[in-house]
Inverse folding.
């Protein structure tokens, strides 16, 4: 039997991700204010990029298709996917930069603004519609959690090696 997830439903799980990534962006701002070393900032930015990539992937693979099916609102989901595409471009740009270089902090802060805006719309529109649609939000928590754990594991070996 798969392990139970600590989340009530899909929205709980996704919103916990949103809050976690928001906290990481706040931590990033604190590093900037403290004049932290570039490598500390780079490590945190990589974590942020990784979290966002995994979150976007589980939404696109599992959550968005279910909401699309249940609501029939293609425009809403298409727009969200475009926003994901913009966020992924910003993530790729950051991953191609070095934290000591010019424009790095601005790129991370730009990503933070994109994510803030997307999360706001997701909460107010997609989550709201999902709650009123014939959608098994409880049942979706488990596959989302399972896929997230799988993707995290895939991205982990690099970190384990660094720690060794
Ligand atoms: Fe989200
Ligand atoms: Fe999203």
């Amino acid at each position: 039997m798969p392990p139970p997830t600590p989340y009530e439903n899909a929205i709980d799980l996704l919103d916990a991700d949103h809050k976690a990534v928001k906290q990481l962006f706040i931590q990033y701002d604190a590093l900037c204010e403290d004049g932290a070393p570039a490598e500390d900032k780079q490590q945190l930015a990589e974590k942020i990029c990784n979290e966002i990539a995994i979150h976007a992937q589980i939404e696109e693979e599992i959550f968005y298709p279910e909401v699309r099916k249940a609501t029939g609102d293609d425009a809403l989901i298409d727009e969200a996917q475009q926003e994901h595409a913009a966020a992924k471009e910003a993530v790729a740009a950051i991953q191609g930069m070095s934290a000591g270089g010019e424009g790095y902090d601005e790129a991370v802060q730009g990503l933070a603004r994109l994510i803030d805006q997307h999360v706001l719309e997701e909460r107010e529109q997609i989550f709201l519609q999902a709650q009123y649609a014939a959608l098994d939000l409880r049942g979706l928590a488990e596959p989302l959690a399972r896929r997230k754990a799988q993707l995290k594991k895939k991205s982990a070996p690099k970190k384990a090696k660094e720690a060794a």
Notes: Residues 10 and 141 are 4 Å apart (CA to CA). The chain has a mean pLDDT of 93. Residues 10-156 form a domain with the Four Helix Bundle (Hemerythrin (Met), subunit A) fold (CATH 1.20.120). Helices lie at 10-33, 38-71, 74-95, 104-132, 137-155, 157-163.
